[in-house]
Structure formats: structure tokens, C-alpha cells
């Protein structure tokens, strides 16, 4: 009976992982945030193909339109896209995502807490669960 329970749990876990990967196959590496200050952040992803990419940033719970930023993915930069977003409000949570044609990244969450700038900050949670700063790269 215990073996059956373990097998069922393993099958459910595998199905959940496959579903999560299928939800955003285009932007396989998710999104990330770094170089965060109280009013700015650098947001990045790895695009599915070379060409134009858009970034949408919206204050969580906000009523206004999302701010759109244009970027370009190239093979020379391994399809990595980076956008410096300025003019953010301190103590505000933002939702952001990247788009290329009809392909969409998972949404990222950025909480602006008025922290001092950190160069080379890494995210410590998966993109679908939001971000926290884990350590600074020296």
C-alpha cells in the first residue's frame, strides 16, 4: 500500500513538472532581476529566437497601463535580453514579463523595498514564485 502511495505521488509530481515546462516552453530559462535600487532594476531573460523582444512592467494592483520596453535578442549575446527599467516607485511590487511574437515568458515579481543597490544580484526563487535577492556576486 505504501509503495502504491509513493508511485502515485511520483506520477503526480512528474505531471506537475511537465505541465510547468509546457506552460512556457518558449522562454525556457524564465526571467530574472538584478542591480536593484529603490527606483530601478535590470530585468533579463533568454529569448527563444533572435529578433525583437518586448518587456511589459506593471505595478501589481495598479490601474494604469503597463510600461513597455523594447529590446533585441541576438545570437552574438546567446539570445540574452537585458533591460534597465528606471522610474520605479519605492515600496511597490511590480509584475513583469517578456514577449516575442506570440511567445510569452512566465511572469516575474519584483518587490521594491528601498534597498541599496546590489551589483550582480541573483534571484533565489523560480520565476513563477517571485524573486528574492540571495547573494551578490563579487
Helix count?
1
Strand content: 35-45%
CATH topology: Immunoglobulin-like
Estimate percent helicity.
Answer: 10-25%
Largest sheet: 5 strands, antiparallel
Number of strands: 10
Overall spatial form: globular
Radius of gyration over all CA atoms, rounded: 17 Å
Query: CATH superfamily membership, which one?
Result: Purple acid phosphatase-like, N-terminal
Low-confidence stretches: 2-21, 116-138
Structural class: alpha+beta
Order of helices and strands: HEEEEEEEEEE
> How many distinct domains?
1
Distance between the termini: 51 Å
**CATH architecture term:** Sandwich
Mean pLDDT across the residues is: 74
State the CATH class. Mainly Beta
Features:
single chain, 138 residues, alpha+beta, Immunoglobulin-like, three-stranded antiparallel β-sheet, 1 helix, 10 strands, 16% helix, globular, disordered N terminus, disordered C terminus
How would you describe this protein?
The chain has 138 residues and is of the alpha+beta class. The protein has one domain (26-136): Immunoglobulin-like (Sandwich), CATH 2.60.40.380. The protein is 16% helix and 41% strand. The strands form three sheets. Strands 3, 4, 6, 7 and 8 form a five-stranded antiparallel beta sheet that branches.
Write a brief structural summary:
It contains one helix and ten strands. It is α+β, with helices and mostly antiparallel strands.
Give the helix/strand layout.
Blueprint lengths: L1 H22 L7 E4 L5 E7 L4 E9 L7 E7 L6 E7 L5 E9 L2 E2 L3 E5 L8 E3 L9 E4 L2
Antiparallel strand pairs: 1-2, 2-5, 3-4, 3-6, 6-7, 6-8, 9-10
Amino acid at each position: 500500500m505504501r509503495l502504491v502511495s509513493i508511485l502515485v505521488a511520483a506520477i503526480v509530481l512528474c505531471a506537475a513538472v511537465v505541465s510547468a515546462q509546457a506552460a512556457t516552453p518558449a522562454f525556457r530559462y524564465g526571467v530574472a532581476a538584478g542591480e536593484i535600487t529603490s527606483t530601478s532594476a535590470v530585468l533579463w531573460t533568454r529569448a527563444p529566437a533572435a529578433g525583437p523582444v518586448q518587456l511589459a512592467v506593471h505595478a501589481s494592483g495598479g490601474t494604469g497601463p503597463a510600461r513597455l520596453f523594447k529590446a533585441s535578442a541576438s545570437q552574438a549575446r546567446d539570445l540574452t535580453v537585458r533591460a534597465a527599467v528606471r522610474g520605479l516607485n519605492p515600496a511597490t511590487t511590480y509584475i513583469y514579463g517578456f514577449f516575442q511574437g506570440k511567445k510569452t515568458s512566465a511572469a516575474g515579481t519584483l518587490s521594491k523595498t528601498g534597498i541599496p543597490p546590489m551589483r550582480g544580484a541573483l534571484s533565489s526563487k523560480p520565476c513563477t514564485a517571485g524573486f528574492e535577492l540571495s547573494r551578490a556576486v563579487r
